[in-house]
Write a structure and sequence with these properties.
- The chain has seven helices and six strands; from the N terminus they run E-H-H-E-H-E-H-E-H-H-E-E-H.
- It has 228 residues and is an alpha/beta fold.
- A six-stranded parallel beta sheet has the order 3-4-2-1-5-6, sandwiched between helices.
- Strand 3, helix 4 and strand 4 form a beta-alpha-beta unit.
- Helix 1 packs across helix 2.
- The chain is globular, with a radius of gyration of 18 Å.
Length: 228
């Protein structure tokens, strides 16, 4: 039987800090290693023909972390985008950042605008990075914008005001590090997603781990509330 390739995969990249602490290293080393893992994962997903990959990079709740760690996490995406700007353009990967730009450094906001513009015409994998993102905040924002419009209040119109407008809902949600929750991530978009949890810490997530998740997805029967 031919394997089904999900159109949209979302990943909660969890376990960077624990990966570093297990090795007696500062937590930021884990975040740096996690960024390398993300780069490899993006390229593998593009090779497989996956159309949308959304990753949870920084939540609206992550501001509660120690100041030094937050500052590092503000600089890390700038470095990631600066490195991949030209590479992803050449590899036909399109980048979109979702979340609120409130509190983000100006240089990061400018880099986001630059990279999104530079890759907007690419037609391969759509890499969506959720940064300074909260699912509840996204829904509240969408409701406010919908009520200010002349559109009827219904599900279809609400989706037009989400950060993921014109992006299909998530088929498969992967969370690493052995945690069994979705942590305010894509609450609307994952209403009927298949959920896959692994004990692997994000920096150790590799092609085999990705394949394991896809194999499990292929065993699932998606009925969306109906019958087979």
């Amino acid at each position: 039987m031919k394997k089904k390739i999900p159109t949209h995969i979302a990943i909660i990249m969890d376990g960077n800090g624990r990966w570093a602490q297990k090795r007696g290293l500062p937590r930021n080393f884990g975040h740096r290693k996690g960024a390398e893992t993300l780069l490899k994962t993006v390229r593998y997903a593009n090779k497989l023909g996956i159309k949308y990959l959304t990753v949870y990079a920084f939540s609206t709740e992550n501001w509660k972390r120690p100041k030094e760690e937050v500052e590092y996490l503000m600089n890390l995406p700038f470095q990631f985008l600066e490195r991949t700007n030209k590479e992803f353009k050449n590899e036909n990967i399109k980048i979109k950042i979702i979340g609120t730009k409130n509190k983000l450094p100006e240089k990061l906001i400018n880099k986001i605008i630059e990279v999104e513009k530079n890759t907007e015409n690419n037609t391969g994998l759509n890499l969506i990075i959720a940064f300074n993102y909260g699912g509840k905040e996204e829904i509240v924002s969408a409701v406010k914008r919908l009520t200010q419009s002349n559109l009827e209040i219904n599900e279809e119109n609400l989706e037009k005001f989400l950060y993921t407008e014109n992006i299909p809902n998530v088929d498969l949600l992967i969370r690493t590090s052995g945690e069994y929750r979705i942590s305010n991530f894509l609450l609307w978009q994952t209403a009927y997603s298949e959920l896959y949890f692994t004990d692997v810490l994000w920096p150790d997530f590799n092609k085999k781990c990705f394949d394991d998740a896809l194999n499990e997805y292929n065993k699932r029967e998606r009925r969306f509330g109906g019958l087979k």
